[in-house]
What does this fold into?
Amino acid sequence: MSGPALKHVDSHSAIHEAALNEATELTELLDKLVRDNQKEKALELAFVIVEHWETRTLRHAESEEEGLYEDLVETSPELKDSIIALTRDHDLLKLLIQEIKELLRNGISDDVVQRFQALILVDLLHNQKEKTILPDH
It folds into this structure.
């Protein structure tokens, strides 16, 4: 079963919005550091951003998949395709994080920044879709 905050569209949206806003701000700062050729600071920040995605967004995604999504499909079987699509979004986020980690082995680059920006876009679209199917109890 999922916790009460996940089941209410307003509180659930607030969880997503806070994490996404933080990720966006951190990524903008990373982009500036890369453009200013502050590679050491940028590399440190990139690892902080990876940790942010893993501890905030991906951990939240796991709890959605283990509780909320199962509950939704059980009570509203017609949502199964939408839940599959939302779960695929989570998979894309995980894949992007893995790519970023691999790229960071060679240091900071524009490719890393672009993947962080892709994470933001995928998560934004995911959140918009999730709002349309989340019941407001």
Notes: The helical segments are 4-7, 9-35, 39-75, 80-104, 110-133. The first helix runs from residue 4 to 7. Residues 4-132 form one domain.
